[in-house]
Amino acid sequence: MPIDPTLGLLTTDEAISRAAKQVVANALDATSSIDPIIGAEFSRAFSFAGLVVQRHGLLIQRVLADTLASSGRFEVLMESPIPITAAALDLLASENSEKDLSSIKLKSDSRVERSVMVDIVVIDETKRWAGVYDVKRGNGETTWKTRKPIENDLRAARLVLQSHLKKLGYDVDHVDSAVIDYYGSSGFPRNIKISGGELDRHFGVPITDKIDNMTMALRDEVHAGLLQILDPVIRKLSASQTKVATEQPVRTTAEGAVRVADILQARPRGPDQWQAGFAR
Fold this sequence. Notes:
With 280 residues, the protein is α/β, with parallel strands linked by helices. The protein has helices at 13-29, 39-70, 86-93, 98-102, 144-167, 199-203, 208-247, 260-265, 271-277, and strands at 75-85, 112-124, 129-136, 174-181, 193-195.
């Protein structure tokens, strides 16, 4: 589910706070199946946390795109379809080097095999440059089965990007493509990814602080949401523990008996000393 577009540009603290509250509210309202081992409340808590983590990745994408768009330097296209031509796929299949591929620009109106929906296209008309990006949260590894098609799609999209954008009214000479791997653990190869710490330098616009501020705002809302879910069950468990403790009889240790605590806290002893220690 995309982030609500009615929230406007997520470039101010107020807008980011509203987005964080909405994400958490939607996750709290979502239904979840009940696991028979952990019960209803913990099942809801795990489902809630998983939904928010997914939405966090979308918020990273949205804050990134909005920050670039509001900079006055870039045009940004979100969730934009790009045609993948047969010629582009043939070039990739022939295992040309990255250096060779970087200098090739194909027509986007030749035979199209399919279209790929890319997360963001960033265009700097002044510098006559454009880049196409897939945005990953990157706090865990993306499986190879998922990574490989994304890599191929980004490379193929780069080959036709200049021609495709010209049809949309953008005249660019230089094109690029990459995975934005914010936390850096997605598993994509180094030559095709940009980590969160490299974004400011890559685009020449301060972005990382905005995304990190959004993350902190979302974290605060998540903690409040988890407390709302778990507070009743924590109270219930605490009451049960208190009841069990008051009902347990006080156990006394017979004089001269060896206590487990004494054994655990004793100095190490060899086999002879150990045996002698119990010869009473």
